UniProtKB/TrEMBL annotation:
<dbReference type="Pfam" id="PF19942">
    <property type="entry name" value="DUF6404"/>
</dbReference>
<keyword id="KW-0472">Membrane</keyword>
<keyword id="KW-1133">Transmembrane helix</keyword>
<protein>
    <submittedName>
        <fullName>Uncharacterized protein</fullName>
    </submittedName>
</protein>
<dbReference type="InterPro" id="IPR045644">
    <property type="entry name" value="DUF6404"/>
</dbReference>
<keyword id="KW-0812">Transmembrane</keyword>
<feature type="transmembrane region" description="Helical">
    <location>
        <begin position="12"/>
        <end position="33"/>
    </location>
</feature>
């Protein structure tokens, strides 16, 4: 698939890793904001 587009495999791996890291950062930010909006407690304080 990548060879048909003229892209080397290493570039495809780099793009995939970068996209995954960016997606993870966006999701972490989203859930951090939602936690603040809903006034939820931290995971560490749930067992206390």
């Amino acid at each position: 698939m990548w060879d048909d587009l003229g892209k080397p495999v290493l570039e495809a791996v780099y793009i995939s890793l970068l996209t995954g890291a960016l997606f993870g950062l966006v999701m972490a930010t989203f859930y951090y904001i939602r936690r603040k909006q809903l006034n939820l407690t931290d995971w560490g304080s749930l067992g206390e």
